Each structure stands twice: as C-alpha cells, then as structure tokens.
Amino acid sequence: MITIYHNPRCRKSREALSLLEGEGKMPLVRLYLKDELSEQELVNLLNRLAIKPIDIIRTTEKIWKEQYKGKDLTDKEVIQAILDNPILMERPIVEAGEKAVIGRPPERVLSILP
To answer: Which PROSITE patterns does the record associate with it (predicted)?
Structure first.
C-alpha cells in the first residue's frame, strides 16, 4: 500500500502524485488538511521517515513564524503544533510499507517504491 499525504494546491505535491501514477502506482491520496492525522498516525509517520518532528515543519508558514518561531519546543510540542495546524507539515510525504520519504524534490518518492 502506498499513501501520499497530499495538498492539491502544492505544485510539488501534484508532481509527486503524477510521478507515482506515471509508474503505474495508484496511491491512497490522503488530503491531510481535511482528513487530519491522529497523534499516533503522525508519530508512526515520523518513525517511518526517521526524522525528528521539527524536521517536518514548514518554517516559512505564517502561523509558524507568528506562534512558534524562536521557541525551544519539545518534540511533543512540535507534534501538537502540527496536529493543531496541519498546514505546518511538509509535503508531499509518501509512505510505502515501513518506508516513507518527503517528496522534495518530487523524484525522491520513487526511491521507496516496491
């Protein structure tokens, strides 16, 4: 099963989805801004990515700059910031089985395909 955490308004996310489809893969498209992740789903995703929560943050987002920038946040606090504001999560993210990758550049998603 391949899942893409997708924001259709994001060019990189659209490109990653197109690459997957071009490879004949029909991923489950998770519109994470509408179908928000649970805390456990986010923790599992971070474990598959093998990164710290801060590494998935879009630090250029206005809400990050206004509410979180410059604060010494714990991993749990960063996770809560993402849960409260899903727009902060980097995109696209693709997971396949126990592997996951941030699709920047979009071609990175090909590296985890079965």
So the answer is: ARSC
